[in-house]
Amino acid sequence: MGVGIRLTGVTKKFGTFAANSNISLAVEEGTIHALIGENGAGKSTLTKMIYGMFRPTTGEIAINGKTVRFSSPREAIEAGIGMVHQHFMLVDELSIAENIMLGNEQTGLFRRIPLQKIRARIINDAEAFGLAVNPNEKVGKLSVGQQQRVEILKLLFRNASIMIFDEPTAVLTPSETEQFFATLRSMRDKGKTILLITHKLDEVLSVADTISVMRKGELIGTLPAASATKPGLATMMVGRSVLLAVDNPPPRPGETLLALSNLGFITPDGKKMLESLTLNIKSGEIYGIAGVEGNGQSELLQALRGLAPEGSTITGKATLKGESLIGKTPAAITLMGVSHVPENRLREGVILDYPVSSNLIFGRHQEQSFRKRTGFNHNEVRIHSNRMISEYDIRCSSPELQPISALSGGNQQKVVVAREFTRPEISLLILAQPTRGVDIGAIELIHKKIIAAREKGMAILLVSSELEEITALSSRIGCLYKGTLRYEFSHDEVALKREREDEFIKEIGLYIN
Amino acid sequence: MNSSKRSASTSTETAVTMTKITGQLLIPLLSVMTALLFSALFIAMIGEDPVMICSKMVRSTIGSSYGTGHVLFRMTTLVLVALAVAIPFKVRLFNIGAEGQLLMGAFAAAMTGSIIGETLSSTVAIALCILSAMAAGCAWALLAGVLRVQFGVNEVIGTIMLNFIAQGITGYLLTWHFALPSTVHTAPISNAAIIPTIESLTGWFAKSPANLSLLLSLALPLLFYALLFKTRFGYEMRAAGLQPEAARYGGINAKRHTLMAMGTGGAIAGLGAANIVLGYKHYYESGMTGGIGFTGIAVALLAGAHPVWILLSALFFGFLEYGGLSVNAWVPKDIFMIIEAMTILLVITFSSLGKQLNKR
């Protein structure tokens, strides 16, 4: 077997900062090669160079044995490289077939497109790799998993021999992930070279043949998957040994703080997103909501935080310490003792252009201690931000000048977590995807802080699409399916089943699919 | 160890400030220089000597106290209308309606000024006229704000339409009801309502229309700078503009800020109208604003909507406007319209180029 991608001494500098330094790597033809590393380790810079979006500062890239110097992705595509981006590049209004042939219509600009031929080719590819789709369907109507299939078919249609996948499973359900892996394996078996960028260690171990680990712009090592272990990889990625499962002492629940009874939610366009949802959360308890995205999690959060879009209808009751949350403004709900780490950090959780210290008080800027006349008590703000930065290990150079957008995803999330966990007098702490896009090292810290918050007697609602996170942290678990709880695991059940995590996750999987 | 860490953080601090200054100062300067070069080229192309034209322009503007007064008078209006654009801009609203707000404000000031009589004290008369101009501008801008907040009418469309309506209303009222016979202007305002010229107090800028509104136009940008960047109100307002969803999550009432920003912008456009009516013309005349509300958009854009830079940007545009007028005998003043528009296009082009260069 030859070498599909060979990098020799590749360095990429942005100004004085080396995003990649002296990387040498060989991806064998007909293998699945995983590239792992924390955020900011340089994985995407590396793939962008292979895909012709960046040029290396020094060093050499060879594709299928030939040295190349791409100046645009088009040249990379012509050389047989295909890439599936984390955010799909599809046109919703066009059909699957039209999307697949886009930019490669096999005919002149004003000639008739050989649609029959193209459809036949698509169906052929789809059957060969287990990617069943109907070429005439509009892409906008497809599920995320199906859209990913379209992206893969696009690469096959262009006869790509090298395929790059950037965090492909981030948006997939557990069963879609299984299917996707089967497709990857069958493509490998037919001789395709696959480069998989990810940070999920379990997946890497189950699907990859070879694993390369990056850290801080350098390649730490490449090893066969057969000889790799999860803790070993984690240590390579972070540079120190990491606790993968947080220490979770038995909870001591107190009085009921949050009570939902028969909660219903109808969106402005008439979709029922929640229906007769009933649950309660006690003080000192973490209630995990397991579920595939789109089963009502977002609406539940909106209802509890007063963020439901205008025109939605909320029925039933939601009370915190007996006081209703429904119909109140976000500011009023905050005053009742609700703190909230939002689902979408970049859109809701921070103001990207504001410096770190301003973001550490965002949403809390009216608190007495931060105020001074019409402006801010800069001294207090500085003390607060320095305390948060050291307690939550936020890595930034100058908190009062550096905009938060300059921080890595993990550090941005630590800013949000620090701010929300330290509000005065919290009764209910709502955590939505608290570790999404966050490095292993940061996950460890955030998980510890969640357990500490529980020990302080807060009622915690944890919504996460990472089932491992749910099982590791929760005191009780509710399985959300189509807007209602299909099953609730009690304290005892959770404590018992946590011992055998893999089986537990599979069991939860049955209730949410 | 510790000291090396500190020096590293200082160097990033310097880097952050440097890029900020580059963005705020270098790009506009570069654009202005390029646009001036191009205009020199145009002037040469129509067969005139650019150096001669330029020196004439300088002599007739900042070279004489009368010319300086004219430049400052134009700058005053431009600062105010530019603020009317820049403040809504901070909440991501594009106020194209400064012209309409200016018209309504000017008409209101002239009307109030003509009915209050001569018996009132000057302070009260001026205050009344200014307040009515501000109220009219504010109401006109708020209308666009309400349309946006309550009915989702995009404020660009809203303010453009309201410009037409303002033109229609003032045009109708003037021609059919308030114009003095065989003129296109209203009755003059009461002497008590006239804002004193700077000449009357200090003797500077003799015979020019520069008046005390100038002081207002110097103070307001500083006031708004403090409001936007030093208060909790400004913190909330900018957040609402940058990321409306985050603002909602953070308990900020974004609708209120939309209305506040539009209303404040309109009121300040009204002040700009007061400068023209109470400080210069002393009546409302058809076509008296001459599109200066639109030039205000350019002034705000050149300054990156930053209240303090608006002062410089307005001075530059004021210079071009009056300087262009003064060399009209040699070169068509249309050339200066080209410079103004080109400067803005260059600012946008250069900032985008800068971003692309940073990325590569």
Task: Give an overview in words.
The complex is a heterodimer of chains A (513) and B (360). Chain A folds into three domains: 3-238, P-loop containing nucleotide triphosphate hydrolases (Rossmann fold, 3-Layer(aba) Sandwich); 243-337 and 425-513, Rossmann fold; 354-423, no CATH class. Chain A has helices spanning 43-50, 73-78, 96-101, 115-128, 144-157, 174-189, 201-207, 230-238, 297-305, 330-335, 345-349, 356-359, 378-391, 409-421, 440-455, 467-473, 491-497, 501-512, and strands spanning 3-14, 17-28, 32-37, 58-63, 66-68, 81-84, 162-166, 193-198, 210-215, 218-224, 256-266, 272-282, 285-290, 313-320, 323-324, 338-341, 371-372, 375-376, 428-432, 459-463, 476-481, 484-489. Chain A is built from 18 helices and 22 strands. In chain A, helix 14 runs parallel beside helix 15 (440-455) and helix 16 crosses helix 18. A six-stranded mixed sheet of chain A has the order 6-7-8-3-9-10, sandwiched between helices. In chain A, strands 16-19-20-13-21-22 form a six-stranded mixed sheet, with helices on both faces. A four-stranded antiparallel sheet of chain A has the order 2-1-4-5, with helices on one face. Chain A is of the alpha/beta class. Chain B has two domains: 22-48 and 331-360, no CATH class; 71-329, Orthogonal Bundle (ABC transporter involved in vitamin B12 uptake, BtuC). With 360 residues, chain B is mainly alpha-helical. Chain B has 14 helices and no strands. The interface between A and B is medium-sized, with 31 and 25 residues.
